[in-house]
Amino acid sequence: MALSRRFAAAAASLCLVGGVLLATGPAQAEQNTFFETKNGKVSCEMSKGKSVGTEVNCLVMGKKIKSATLKKNGNVKKCKGEKCAANPPEDTGVLRPKEATVTGPFTCRAKSKKAVVCKVTKTGAGFRMNSKPKIKKIGGATP
User: Fold this and answer.
1) Among 23, 69, 79, 129, whose Cα sits 20 to 30 Å from the Cα of 143?
2) How many Å apart are CA 104 and CA 32, to the nearest integer?
3) How many Å apart are CA 39 and CA 96, to the nearest integer?
4) What is the phi/psi pair of residue 71, to 5°?
5) Are 38 and 20 in contact, with CB atoms under 8 Å apart?
6) Is the peptide bond preceding residue 89 cis, with omega within 30 degrees of 0?
């Protein structure tokens, strides 16, 4: 599912909790967590559910646009260029350095004010992304 459609569809029911923007559906079956790094250059959406999918999407906007999508099986797909562009919801919360958030099978942690690491919690497979933009697969993540 396109990142921009996902951001737009989920923006309807949002709340700010501890600096991280959360969106949940009926009985918490559907979950979306939105956040950005402290410098505002990396924005992410973590989702779990049938209609929203179960994945993590992180995006760096700037001169170079890059994104990474992490699936629950540990696959990471990188994207670059305009086709990757999306707009996160307004008032997206900040994940401060050393803070972490969990949604479904994923954990994302801000490593600094400009870098984030997102992993499948059980396997450690995932990616590290910074605002340069640079994306590195980690923990046995597969293409």
Assistant:
1) 23
2) 9
3) 9
4) -95, 165
5) no
6) no
Burial per residue of 114-142, b for 16 or more beta-carbon CB atoms within 10 angstroms, e otherwise: bbbbbbbeeeebbbbbbbebebebeeebe
Per-residue pLDDT of the chain (143 residues; tens, 9 = 90+): 444 444 444 444 444 444 454 444 455 578 899 999 999 999 999 999 988 889 999 999 888 899 999 999 999 999 999 898 888 888 889 999 999 999 999 999 999 999 999 999 999 999 999 999 899 999 977 76
Q: Look up residue 9 and give its two tokens.
A: 């569809």
Q: What are phi and psi of 121, to 5 degrees?
A: -55, -45
Beta bridge pairs of residue 108: 101, 118
Look at residues 15, 4, 30 and name the one whose alpha carbon lies nearest to residue 103: 30
Measure the CA angle with vertex 96, ends 91 and 114; round to 5°: 90
| Residue 82 DSSP SS3 | helix
Q: From the CA atom positions of the chain, what is the Rg in Å?
A: 13
Amino acid at 39: N
Tokens 């923007």 belong to residue:
21
pTM here is: 0.78
Residue with tokens 């999407």: 57
Distance CA 113, CA 122 (A): 25
